Each structure stands twice: as C-alpha cells, then as structure tokens.
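ok so I'm stuck.
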Amino acid sequence: MTVEIITPDKEIFSGNASLIQLPGLDGLFEILENHAPMIAALSNGRIKLVSDEKTLFFEINGGTMEVMQNKVQVLAE
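replied:
not stuck anymore, here's the structure
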C-alpha cells in the first residue's frame, strides 16, 4: 500500500509499506494492505511503519489519517 506522512512543514515519508501502526484516540491500531476505507483521529505517540523489510518510527503530536483505495494518508502535527 502507498503511505504518505505529512506535517504542516514538510513531507516526512512517501512510499510503499506493508503495515502502519498508528496511535488512535482509543489506543494503537494497525492498517494492512487492502484495508477498508476509514478516517480516524490520532493522539500523541509513535507511528510504526514496516517498509521493505525495515521498520521506521515517527513521533507525532496528534493529527488525522485516511485510508482509501490502498492508500494511507497521515496528516500529523
């Protein structure tokens, strides 16, 4: 799936991933390939991204995310 992580200042990540774990308001949740469409609010925490056999982590201070047509877009603070 395609993942974009964007802050007000810059794009942090853009590329393919097999898994993304996000800090939701009610706890952590994961998105895998071909996930159903959804929108969620994010809290402070860490995004975990598994891409090409490497794992990346990004600290955020909240935001929103959208999944649509095998694309995850994160608008983070």
